[in-house]
Amino acid sequence: MEDVKSTGEEINTEESGACKENATKKEKKSSKNANKDLLDRIAALEAEIKEKDDKYLRMAAEYDNFRRRSREEKSAAYENAMADTVTEILPIIDNLERAVQFGGEGAVKEGLDMIMKSVEAVFAKLGVEAVGRVGEKFDPNLHNAVMHDEDESLGENEIVEVYQKGYKKGNKIIRFAMVKTVN
User: Fold this and answer.
1) By the 8 A CB rule, do 54 and 80 touch?
2) How far does the chain reach from its first CA to its final CA, in angstroms?
3) Model confidence over 100-159: pLDDT tens digits?
4) Which of 11, 63, 118, 145 is deepest in the core (most CB within 10 A)?
5) Residue 151 near residue 171, CB atoms below 8 Å
6) pLDDT mean across residues, the chain
7) Contact 138, 149 (CB under 8 A)
8) CA-to-CA distance for 132 and 126, rounded, in angstroms?
9) For 38-60, how does the pLDDT look when each residue is reduced to its tens digit (9 = 90+)?
10) What pLDDT was estimated at residue 121?
11) Inter-residue contact 140 to 156 (CB < 8 Å)
12) What is the fold, at CATH topology level, of the domain defined by 127-183?
């Protein structure tokens, strides 16, 4: 009987080893599944982080563009308001220039000259400059040629008369100069 017992014990030990082996296989399988689940979760989180980073970078770029556009619009609004104001004042200045030109002598002419100098000083302070002087080369971006003559003694596309001064602020033309050109 002892033999039987020992054989039975051997069988039980073998069965228990097989059970342990099956349990170990199941544990390995479940740990592989758990590892796979964790790796899938990590991949999903990395993809989400990448998506959030991309959204953040796009939002930062949009904000920079918004600030730049706002700055440009503010500058343009100032320039346009300045040009509109100067445009409204120009007829007064034109009349003063005509008065200086035909003002005669004495105190009246001297007073008109002083007014014109103060206007020029204000324009200089505002950054507004006159364009279109006799002797300049004609530039269609600054001048409007209303008359043209031929005179071989003068240069090509030279301004010989200014009927109305033009004005500009920076690159913005407030009013084109009305001029007479030659050749």
Assistant:
1) no
2) 138
3) 888 777 888 888 889 999 999 999 999 999 999 999 999 999 999 999 999 888 888 899
4) 145
5) no
6) 86
7) no
8) 19
9) 999 999 999 999 999 999 999 99
10) 94
11) no
12) Nucleotide Exchange Factor Grpe; Chain A, domain 2 (2.30.22)
Give me the amino acid identity at 125: K
Residue at 120: amino acid letter: E
Domain range summary for the chain, segments of one domain joined by +: 127-183
Q: What are phi and psi of 75, to 5 degrees?
A: -65, -45
What's the pLDDT score for residue 168?
Answer: 95
Write b or e for each residue in 157-170: b if 16 or more Cβ atoms lie within 10 A of its Cβ, otherwise e: bbbbebeebbbbbe
Buried b (16+ CB within 10 A) or exposed e, 108-132: eeeebeeeeeeeeeebeeeebebbb
Which residues are registered as beta bridge partners of 173? 168
- Bridge pairing between strands 166-169 and 143-149: unpaired
Q: Where are the alpha helices (DSSP H) in the chain?
A: 2-102, 107-126
Pair type for strands 158-164 and 166-169: unpaired
The H or E element containing residue 161 is strand 158-164
Residue 179: CB partners within 8 Å, gap ≥ 6? 132, 138, 143, 144, 145, 146, 147, 159, 161, 162, 163
Q: How many CB atoms lie within 10 A of CB 13?
A: 10
